[in-house]
Amino acid sequence: MRYVLICLSLLCLMSPCFAETTLERVRRTGEIQVGTDATYPPFESKVGEVYEGFDVDLGEAVAREMGVRIVWTNVSFDGIFPGLIAGKYDMIISAVTITPERAAEMAFSDPYYDAGQIITVRKGEKGIATVRDLVGKAAGVQVNTTSQYMLEKQGGVDIRKYASMDLAMLDLQQGRLRAVVGDAPTIQWMIGKNFSSLEMVGELLTQDRYGYVFRKGDADLAGVVNAALARVRAAGTYDALHARWFGQAQKPDPKEPSLAERLLPLFAKGLLWTVQLTVAAYLLALPLGLAVALLRLSPSRPVTWAAGVYVEVLRGTPLLVQIFFVYFVLPSAGLSLSAWAAGVVALGVNASAYVAEVCRAGVLSVDRGQTEAARSLGMTSWQALRFVVLPQALRRMVPPLTNEAVALLKDSSLVSVMGLTELTRAGQELSGRYADPLTVWPVVALFYFAVTFPLTRLAAWLERRFEAGRAG
Prior knowledge:
Number of strands: 15
Distance between the termini: 78 Å
CATH topology of the largest domain: MetI-like fold
Radius of gyration: 27 Å
CATH superfamily of the largest domain: MetI-like
CATH architecture of the largest domain: Orthogonal Bundle
Strand order of the largest sheet: 5-1-6-15-7
């Protein structure tokens, strides 16, 4: 027996040596998982389920050289690096600038694109050409990008951070900003697309180089990608793709449907995701919230205290932080959920705290004499709660629970940080792709209103009906 235990101990110690590396898994499965923020044309954008852009085409060419296929994961840029570290994908292809700070935490491929930051102003703006000219002025950047870090290093600039570059450009066009700083290729593309009242000024502020991003322990995968990238360059594929995406802009086809006509089916699909996510999360929140409410009404003080802590922690911390915790932090503890499952869990658990308070208030609103009368008839405490108290409390709980469903539907927009293409994320993707936020976001609002308005009317009707029933 002793020798068996020794052998098992040795196997446990040696198991890391036999653990499959990322490169080995990629070769075994024939797939490489890639994260990208598809709101950054002409490098990466997404229309429906189709990814397109220079980064996308070049990444596909590199994957073919490796003999594997890419599975893209669309994720907001402010969550793209935590997702890589958490193991949600194997590498990042998303116009990522190689910086010493990032290189200290992650591994990079050989540079594949030379770019630089540039300042954009409204046409006719005078006196702004360098970073020093922005001191004391409001300047827009995309969050967590090289332009943000550069302006922070300069100091004295009123930095406004945006989830996507098109929103920064819109604020500049409308006069809320004095300038926007960003990657020259993307800004040039957006100016030509829908921001003709803006212009780039001065010289390139930086000499940036883009690279693919890997986890620190995946140097072997980075080496294979570098070799494939070199072969793509040697074959002339890189130059052809560069000419396609950064050559002369194509004129729009007058026979193409309008932007609104192209957006409607894509938004309809995003709305379907939103409704499905909301329903799944609410089906989790209802029984969980009711259980927590009953625990808070327990005669046991430790149980009541624990349930109270549960409610206060969830109601006292932002939902966005909870989403980050479930999706990005839990994998380090060995619990890795898909984006869909993480969204359902985060939204459902958060909503359960509010449902619990609604249910607790509903139970407490029933006169205590009802319980005493039921007990005097020989019912147990559980029977009195189930057959007497809860049926009466339910009539009072339904209207606020319906309102909670409306709030949950709107809160579902926060899962866009994980890349789920619900309605808000669909808006981000399409706004970046067409550089037309003034068209995209009103349509998003109309779709949300089309769903929430019937729910709010239902809640009002139920409230009137139950009030009339109590009066009768």
